[in-house]
Amino acid sequence: MLRRTVLAALPASLAAGRAAADTYPGKPITMIVPFAAGGPTDTMARIVGERMAKELGQQFIIDNTTGAAGTIAVGKAVRAAPDGYTVSIGHVGTHVANGVIYKNLNYNLLTDLAPIARLPQNPMLVVTSEQLPVKTLKELVDYLKTNGDKVPGGTAGIGSGAHLGALAFFAATGVKYQLIPYRGTGPAMQDLVANQIQVMVDQSANSLPQVRAGKIRAHAITAKNRSSAAPEIPTAAEAGYPMEISIWHGLWAPKGTPPEIIAKLNAAAVATLQDRDVRRRMEDLGQDIPTPEEMAPPAFAAFHKQEYARWQKILEAANVKIE
Ligand code: MLT
Question: Nearest 5°: CA angle at 186, between 162 and 193?
Fold first, then answer.
C-alpha cells in the first residue's frame, strides 16, 4: 500500500522505472559485443554474461555486431531501448579512442550511454608467428627496421585495442609494420597462427593460450611488471623498449535506463568478479580485475572521462583521425 502511494506520488516516468525495476529482469538480456566471436572482448562477454545470468535469473544473449572497430555496435547500443534488456560491452578503443579518431560519429561516448560497471583490463603482448625469424623484441625491431613495410600485422580496425597497441609499439621502437584490419583479434589470431600475418600487439587474454600452445611467440608484455600468468615473458622495458598499455573493458546501458536497473546490473557484475572461478579464469588469462569500488557507476564514469582526456592528447598528438 505504502509503495503504491509512493509510486503514485512520483512523476510517471520515474514511477514506471521503479515499477519496471521491481520485476527486472523478466526475460533474457542482450549483450552487444563489438568484435568477432573468439576474441578477448567476446571471451570476457561470455564469462561475465554466464555468471551474471546466475545472479539475475535470466540468460544473456551474446550479439556479436562487428565492423569499423566497434563503432557500428556502439551505435546500435546507443539506439537500443533504455529498458535494461540491452547492454553493451566495450573497451578503451570502442568507448574512448573511437570518439577522438572518428570525426563523424553520431553519438557521444561520454553522455549517450549509462555506465553499469568497469570490467577487467588486459595487458598486451607483442607476439609474432612461429615462422618469423625473430626470438626477442630486439630481433623483431631489427627485422622491422629493414622489412617493416613488408610485414603484415593484425588489428581490429583503426581505434581498436590492437591498433592502439601498434601505435604504442611504433612510438616506443621507431619501427612500423603493415596494419591489416580484421573484425576482431580472434580471426586475426587464426591468421597469425597460420603465418598469414606475422606480428600483433594483442590483449593477453587472446594471445596467452596460443603462446602456451607453442603456436605463436611472445616477446614482451606491455606492463610495468611481469604477469603472474606468464612470468617467463619479459616486460617491454626489460626487453629494451619501455611501453605500457592495457585495454580496460566496461559495461554500459542506453542513456535513460532506470537507475534501479543499473544498480541491479552493477550488483550482478560485482558479484561476478568476486566469484572465485571467474577470477581464476580471468587471472589465468593475465587480466587485472577492478575492485567493487572501481566498478561502481560513478567511479567508472569518472575513470572513463579521465581516460578520454588522456587518450585525446595522445591520439591528437599522433594525428590519428578518420574524417
Ligand atoms: C577483440 O575482442 O577482438 C578485441 O578487443 C579487438 C581489439 O583489439 O580491440
Answer: 95
Q: Per-residue pLDDT for 1 more than 80?
A: no
Q: What pTM was computed for the model?
A: 0.94
CA atoms within 13 A on the CB side of 135: 0
- Ligand 1 atom closest to 42 (CA): 2
Ligand 1 neighbourhood includes 161 CB (under 6 angstroms): yes
Q: Is 184 in the pocket of ligand 1 (CB under 6 A)?
A: yes
C-beta of 34 in contact with ligand 1 (< 6 A) = no
Task: Compute, in angstroms, the gap from residue 90 CA to the centroid of ligand 1.
Answer: 9
Residue 280 in grid coordinates: 581464476
Q: Which atom of ligand 1 is nearest to the CA of 202?
A: 8
Longest dimension (CA), the chain: 78
Q: Which three cell numbers stand for residue 202?
A: 594483442
Q: Return the SS3 of 117.
A: strand
Res. 271: pLDDT tops 90: yes
93 lines ligand 1 (CB under 6 A): yes
Radius of gyration from C-alpha coordinates of the chain? 20
3-state secondary structure of 189: helix
Which backbone phi and psi does 152 adopt, to 5 degrees?
A: -75, 130
d(CA 252, CA 256): 11
Q: pLDDT tens for residues 206-239?
A: 999 999 999 999 999 999 999 999 999 999 999 9
